[in-house]
Amino acid sequence: MSTIEQLNAAFVSALDIDEKQISDELAYNSIEEWDSTAHMILIAELEDQFDIMLDTDDIIDMSSVAKAKEILQKYDISF
Amino acid sequence: MISASKPIEGSSEPRVPLEQAAILITGAAGGIGRACVIACVKQGWHVFAAMRNKQEGQERLREALQSSGLNNVAQSADLLTLLEYDVSDSKQVKAAFAQIKKSPYELVGLVNNAGLMKDSLLGMTSLDDFDMQMLVNVRASFLHLQLASRLMTKNKQGSIVNVSSVIGLDGAPGQVAYSASKAALLGMTKSAAKELAPLNIRVNAVAPGFINTQLTHDYSAAKRASVINNIAVGREGQPEDVAATIMHLLSAQSAYITGQTIRIDGMMSI
After folding, report:
1. Is B85 a catalytic residue?
2. Do the chains contact at B6 and A37, CB–CB below 8 Å?
3. For the residues B66-91, what does the mean pLDDT come to?
4. DSSP string for A5-32
């Protein structure tokens, strides 16, 4: 599975949305499904998918799909 | 206020099989910590026993396990993992959680037991002593709560027990800083319980009273008798008394209990 597929899988699983809804512009709290609880589930999914532990500051900053990609690159994950 | 939503369906059912389930216990070398390790191992959970000094703590834990007829446990990596770190050092705490995450076990329980008590009258309490108690009793517990809940979120199963104190509920002269730190744990418990309930993670606190541990070993006979005179059941508590309640809170038998503080004090008056 490519890293983008892993990323999408995490979003689909955590937010319970269709993969078609995922775009760089998709933002935290912009849809009903991406609320504060789902955000913590998303973090758990991303950590599991990429076998990493995110810093709290990165969790706070992860405000969109594009931002998630940017942050994950700090953990040597490229897209 | 950020609200939590979307409860998890069928949330009371354990999702992690017993053979993969693990409990992290901080302050595992202390009296209550050791009693919790023994009780959890007997329950069949893998235990991550966190202590500041592995060499010293390991010996104490080994003796306790042997006296409980669990000679094989200290040597078995399948049953017990010793973690050596300072709970007040966030980098070390994070590294410990990374080790748990990479292990074959899933964290389903946390006992926030590591604590620091420095008795002194209000006018004679240094800010350094105040800060140290807040650092160990509050900040370290917060960090463990934060990181443990992240690991538990993946499986949507978890129970966290914060070890507070009756002093946090009732207060006591000479313990203004300590009681403030233990009372802070109770607020943390209630808020975290509300926030994490939709993720099927429960958070409770216990408030032990006068328990026979290293912390009370230095009490004179007269002081000990005076304290026991104010305990309705007429005896000091044992670490096993505390561990039994913690075990209940960790287990699925308390699946409908969260955000609570349970006194374990034999009805003590302060």
Report:
1. no
2. yes
3. 86
4. HHHHHHHHHHHT--GGG--TT-BTTSST
Percent of chain B with pLDDT over 90: 81
Which domains can be identified in chain A, with CATH numbers?
A: 3-73 (1.10.1200.10)
The total number of residues shown for chain B amounts to 270
What's the structural domain count of chain B? 1
**CB–CB contact B151 A36 (8 Å):** no
Chain A: closest CA distance from residue B111 (Å): 21
pLDDT single digits (tens) A1-42: 899 999 999 999 999 999 999 999 999 999 999 999 999 999
ipTM of predicted assembly, 2 dp: 0.89
Catalytic residue among B85, B105, B178, B219: B178
Q: Is residue B3 part of a domain?
A: no
CA–CA distance, B87 with B139 (Å, rounded to integer): 9
Q: Is residue B1 part of a domain?
A: no
Q: Which domain holds residue B149?
A: 18-262
Pick the residue from chain A with its C-alpha nearest to B155: A44
SS3 B47: strand
**A40–B101: do the CB atoms touch at under 8 Å?**
no
